[in-house]
Design brief:
By secondary structure, this protein is α/β, with parallel strands linked by helices. Helices cover 53% and strands 15% of the residues. It has 14 helices and twelve strands. The strands form three sheets. A six-stranded parallel β-sheet has the order 3-2-1-4-5-6, with helices on both faces. The chain has a four-stranded antiparallel β-sheet with strand order 7-12-9-10. α1 crosses α2 (31-42) and α9 (223-236) crosses α10. The longest helix has 48 residues, at 55-102.
Length: 336
């Protein structure tokens, strides 16, 4: 198609130059008049001639008209075909993208691809989670370097956009919009559309924390507060924080956290103690936390603690150990 357009434009330029040169040297017109006569001849608009043509000019005009009608007709058809095909191709891509989104289940919706949204997406990609990003700025989508199929262009505040992103089938929504008011409206809309959805929201101001929680957010993250606390921790306990920061997340020596639910570990409702689980020997991972069915956390739980239905354990291990864990319990990288 591009080669056809190049040929069509080349032919138009050629016939234009031939017409201008012909009227200039055959009729003896000025350059401006030659351009004028060429344009009205090629376009067949029928405006008044600058001066009456002689016999040579009449023959030239006849030939110019015959060739120009064919060339202009060809150029118009090629350009029209290109515009229609481009529109159809864009529509086809959008339909294909929407079909892919419609097939998603238990996926994650990330609203906003700013600094925090980008970090969330990078982590989700590391864990091979299925997600869709809602972003209203086309420049951000074009310049991010990701596949455009990962994006749904639109305003996350609008119910229609959230529905297109599959909010009813999603497991989690991360709203990382730069404005707290936008995050608040997004949380309200998402909670109304999906009561069981897990919602994680970003907040710039501490005053927005309670509002977002009341609107339905399960977790509210204050990046600035976390950053300040992290810097203060580098003063209070610099070696510990620096050790954690320098741990690699790639290769066999990387450190990772993972959660495992009771239902993933056992097919029945029978209780089991942590020591009987023998997780260390099976996978190499170490249990560092326990979450009971009613939501209470226990750090470094007692080995004799019983695991019950609805509870979860938090484990730590290197990359290979986490992979062993996921293989043993068929974990699909659930978000903690």
């Amino acid at each position: 198609m591009r080669s056809k357009i190049a040929v069509a434009i080349s032919l138009l330029i050629t016939i234009l130059l031939i017409g201008v040169l012909g009227f200039k040297f055959i009729q003896g017109l000025s350059w401006v008049d030659a351009i004028y006569m060429t344009v009205i001849t090629i376009s067949t608009v029928g405006y008044r001639e600058v001066e009456l043509p002689n016999e040579q000019t009449k023959i030239f005009i006849v030939l110019l008209l015959l060739f120009s009608v064919v060339i202009v007709g060809y150029a118009v058809s090629v350009i029209t075909e290109y515009l229609i095909s481009r529109s159809s191709l864009k529509e086809m891509r959008e339909k294909r993208k929407q079909k892919h989104i419609d097939a998603m289940e238990n996926h994650i919706i990330v609203c906003g691809y700013g600094r925090n949204g980008r970090q969330a997406v990078e982590k989700l990609r590391d864990y091979h989670r299925e997600f869709i990003i809602i972003e209203k700025n086309q420049e951000v989508i074009d310049d991010c370097g990701l596949d455009s199929n990962m994006f749904l262009r639109g305003n996350a505040n609008e119910d229609e956009v959230l529905i297109k992103a599959g909010i009813e089938r999603a497991s989690t929504l991360i709203t990382a919009l730069p404005d707290d008011a936008d995050n608040l409206f997004t949380v309200l809309s998402a909670r109304q559309l999906n009561k069981s959805l897990k919602i994680i929201s970003r907040a710039s101001e501490e005053t927005s924390y309670k509002k977002l929680k009341l609107a339905g957010a399960d977790n509210v993250i204050l990046p600035d507060k976390i950053g300040g606390e992290h810097m203060a921790s580098l003063i209070v306990s610099p070696d510990l924080i620096e050790f954690w920061d320098n741990l690699s997340y790639g290769g066999d020596e990387g450190v990772n956290l993972e959660q495992v639910s009771f239902e993933q570990m056992f097919d029945d409702n029978g209780d089991c103690s942590i020591i009987d689980l023998n997780l260390r020997q099976k996978t190499g991972c170490t249990i560092i936390g326990y979450k009971s069915a009613d939501g209470n956390y226990t750090v470094n739980p007692d080995p004799k603690m019983m695991l019950t239905a609805g509870s979860k354990i938090i484990v730590v291990g290197n990359t290979q150990q986490i992979l062993n864990l996921q293989k043993v319990y068929r974990i699909n990288n659930e978000v903690t």
